[in-house]
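Quick illustration, no need to memorize.
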Amino acid sequence: MERGKEMAGITYFCAEEIAQKSWMIKNVGGSTPAICYLVEGRDYALLIDSIIGIGNLKAFCETLTDKPIKLVNTHAHSDHVGGNFHFDHCYMHPLDVGFFQTSCVGISKEQVFEFAKNVAPEEFREKMIPDDNFADWKPMKVFLVNDGDVFDLGDRKIEVVYVGGHTAGSIVLIDHKTRIAYAGDACNGNTLLEFENSLPVVSYMKNLLHLKEHQSEFDMMYGGHEVFDASILDEAIETVAKVIAGTDDKYEKTGMMGTPVFYAAAKIENGYARVDGKRFNVSYVPTNVYGPEETKQVIAAE
């Protein structure tokens, strides 16, 4: 069942129930491909990520559930935390908090609105106004979660699994009631390890193997941009092992930051898919395959 909500004459969100009391939420109108999820329990509801910040996500979630809502982020990239700022708190792995505070906090409502107008379909732009559907990205309470922590919703438990790689503090959340792993960007068809806050490839491999220990606990991986069955994890381990061994395709592309990166598996010409038909792929910087990995927080002057 799909549901939409009109605000200021614009339908900013739609929701689809993917399992019992579990909704996939997207911005509508083609404004962003990012996905977040709302899971309702007996005592409270858990919002997993908050996408890009276009529309009042808190108000929309309150049309789906009448339970109190807690918010957890799978990682701190802006397309997963943009809607945080209509809430008074979030939960996050400690290794991503510094990036969140320095890279996301401090963006004005007016900047968010201008970005929204630039990416929204033309028919949306004339209706959009900088109203309560947009918020300043201001400091907020951040509660820490670590590997093994559990969100106990009363009649369902959602376990935190640390899978650092895409960012140092990336996590996956396993709903044991529905056998769904909410994976953020930890393992998908375009897993990017090319950022300043990404871990070395060998560290990512260690964390994939840790997730593998939980693979029998979930059937599906609902990610921040794509949905896969649990077997994508096996493709990920196979592909990343080739990078570490130096036997991957080393398919060179321009990365999101405008610098050269390698993809482990060759892609079809001018396309997204792998040439060999498999699903998982990973981008990386050749100098960041083996490390070093920061195991402690480094507090610098700037």
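The first strand starts at residue 2 and ends at 7.
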